[in-house]
Write a structure and sequence with these properties.
153 residues; alpha+beta
Length: 153
């Protein structure tokens, strides 16, 4: 009889510990998901900030300060415009209108525009949660100061 009671106590303990462990695992996953959502929000905030700076012709900072240990690095490098996927997607211009990137860069009816292109990488990290989110953008400016950007592919 004592053996049966000990076995029942042992089984109950195993079941309780298993459910506690499952609960902790779920909590840990939900914390990671929460931090990942915060990382994407931080990357989006940094992207909107960088695009507003670019749109106004202001310098884009290398780092953006965010609270809670987030590290945000913005890397902008000049590239040959043939590297940008300008014929595949539409671009947002600084005037707030949407154009195809080919039209933002050149117009077939007129002489070709001269333009500059940059590739910008937004790197958001939270070392304590081992989370890293990277977004890429293409920035384009024509000879008249019209600026467009393309979301990285």
């Amino acid at each position: 009889m004592i053996a049966v009671v000990l076995v029942l106590i042992n089984l109950t303990t195993v079941i309780l510990l298993s459910s506690i462990e499952d609960g902790l695992q779920t909590w840990r996953l939900s914390q990671h998901d929460l931090q990942l959502a915060r990382a994407w929000r931080a990357a989006d905030s940094a992207r909107f900030y960088a695009l507003s700076q670019f749109q106004q012709g202001l310098p884009i900072p290398i780092t953006v300060n965010l609270p809670s240990g987030w590290q945000v690095l913005l890397e902008r490098r000049s590239v040959n415009c043939s590297e940008a996927p300008i014929d595949k997607v539409s671009a947002r211009t600084s005037g707030g209108t949407t154009k195809t990137a080919n039209n933002a860069v050149k117009n077939a009816d007129e002489e070709p525009l001269e333009y500059q292109c940059w590739h910008m990488s937004i790197d958001v990290q939270q070392p304590s949660y081992q989370i890293r989110v990277v977004q890429n953008l293409w920035l384009i400016e024509d000879q008249y100061g019209v600026r467009a950007w393309l979301r990285g592919i």
